[in-house]
Specification:
Elements (H helix, E strand, L loop, with lengths): L13 E4 L9 E3 L6 H26 L1 H7 L6 H29 L1 H24 L1 H4 L5 H27 L7 H29 L7 H20 L11 E2 L18 H9 L2 H29 L10 H23 L5 H24 L6 H66 L2 H20 L12
Antiparallel strand pairs: 1-2, 1-3
Length: 468
């Protein structure tokens, strides 16, 4: 087998067998790379999957810049209620969608996600187009309902992308995939915060429904790409069985014996590593949206409100740097352990949340330096939280979920992420209305808790395959 580059050289031991072979005839191949056919087919799998995830993020967050063009219809009250409805729906939907994704597979989950979100975004665009006939007083209910429906379909994608890529990446290289995961997220944020406003300004100015219809149309194309190119496993693509070195599932086998929801969750909530990761990701949800979501609202009151228009570019750069750095450290420095990387990044977040408080309290509101410094803090914090989310939700879930339980683990953990999103949304909405002094103070303890929890699983690795 040919040597094919440094990225795939991370693999140390892979068991491959052709379909139909007996397990006793499996060929254990100690390699430092993959065949050209495997690498080419894997790229054809994860690249359109990554594009789909990025455009789903565009269809998830483009409502934030849309708010600025629709102040009479999407005021702070509507914005807050719709966002909370979406976060609750997203978090709760994992209880069902994790099970469905295990039954139907990640590819079907991504098809459902792209198709469903495409339809809902197009309906949101139609609602905005007909807003005058609907009326400002009646806009909240259909808007919040569609936002919640969008987040339901979006939740399939988080499970699908980890479940599919978990079957294509060995545990020794999933930190790098976590970096790719971070880039996908940051690309989607760039599309939502920067590309969407540019399209509105230069191509279809005066038609705010485009904030929803453009991503809706693009998601139709990604549905087609998912159908054509994405396969759940290398075996499904005709490449043989690929032993990823992941942990066995919660019943000690390579497949779940039953789909009893209560039984599955009983096992999940007794798994110390999975639950610790879930609590860490709750902190990530608080910190990520607690920083990014409220920067725009804070900037409106600063001496430089226009700085928020650069947020998409800053988040993209932060996501790429944070994702790749976290993935590299996890695989190369910490031997595929995820918690040490997350712990380091939570440590940086302790400093940054304290800096938010110091910047708000210690600098005059009419200072041009204040919004610039705050922008830098937000970008650095995004590097930390996207890197953390990548190695935990993008890599650790696949490590410990096993062949047939990855979707369930992703569902539970991402549910905790959005529990954190809901906590910060309700809390900071109330606190910042009183004083922005509370912004950094509220976030600070969650960074400390995240660091502490990471020390509890500092040495955790899956206990099966791949030399673990």
């Amino acid at each position: 087998m040919a040597r094919l580059g440094r990225f795939d050289a991370l693999l140390t031991a892979v068991a491959v067998r052709k379909p139909g072979d007996q397990m006793s005839e499996a060929i254990a191949v100690a390699v430092q790379g993959y065949s050209q056919a495997f690498r080419r087919r894997r790229f054809m799998n994860w690249f359109p999957l990554g594009l789909a995830y990025a455009f789903l993020y565009m269809g998830r967050y483009s409502f934030i810049p849309a708010k600025e063009e629709l102040p009479a219809f999407i005021n702070n009250h509507v914005h807050g209620i719709a966002g909370t409805a979406g976060a609750i729906t997203y978090g709760m939907s994992f209880l069902l969608n994790g099970v469905l994704s295990e039954k139907w597979g990640g590819r079907v989950g991504m098809l459902i996600s792209t198709a469903g979100s495409a339809v809902i975004n197009l309906l949101l665009g139609l609602l905005v187009m007909k807003r005058e006939s609907v009326g400002a007083d009646n806009f909240l209910l259909p808007y919040a309902t569609l936002m919640a429906a969008n987040m339901y379909f979006q939740s399939f994608a988080a499970i699908a992308i980890v479940k599919v890529n978990g079957a294509w990446f060995h545990v020794r290289e999933r930190g790098r995939f976590g970096g790719i995961f971070g880039i996908m997220i940051s690309s989607g944020l760039f599309l939502a915060y920067t590309v969407s406003p540019m399209v509105m300004t230069y191509l279809i100015k005066g038609h705010p429904e485009g904030y929803f219809m453009v991503p809706g149309g693009l998601l139709v194309l990604l549905f087609v790409a998912t159908w054509l190119f994405i396969r759940d496993t290398p075996e499904d693509a005709g490449l043989g069985v690929f032993d990823t070195g992941s942990a066995k599932d919660f019943d000690g086998s390579d497949s779940l014996k039953f789909m009893d929801i209560l039984g599955i969750f009983k096992k999940l909530f007794k798994h110390p590593v999975v639950m610790t990761i879930a609590l860490m990701e709750l902190c990530t949800g608080v910190l990520r949206d607690g920083m990014n979501y409220w920067f725009g609202a804070w900037a409106e009151q600063s001496a430089m409100p226009g700085i928020r228009s650069y947020l998409g570019i800053g988040l993209f750069a932060a996501g790429v740097l944070g994702g790749l750095t976290a993935g590299y450290l996890s695989d190369k420095v910490f031997q595929s352990r995820r918690a040490p990387v997350a712990g380091l990044l939570y440590g940086v977040m302790i400093v940054l949340t304290a800096a938010v408080f110091g910047t708000v309290v210690g600098m005059p509101k009419d200072s041009i330096a204040q919004p610039i410094i705050m922008f830098g803090i937000i970008v650095l914090s995004s590097m930390c939280v996207i890197g953390t989310h990548g190695v935990l939700s993008g890599a650790a879930t696949a490590d410990f979920g096993g062949k047939r339980a990855t979707g369930l683990v992703v569902g539970v953990i991402d549910g905790f992420v959005y529990m954190g999103v809901g906590i910060q949304s309700l809390s900071l909405g109330f606190l910042t209305a009183k004083s922005w002094t509370y912004w950094g103070l509220f976030l600070f303890p969650f960074a400390i808790i995240g660091l502490y929890l990471s020390t509890r699983i500092w040495h955790a690795l899956p206990k099966r395959g791949g030399g673990h």
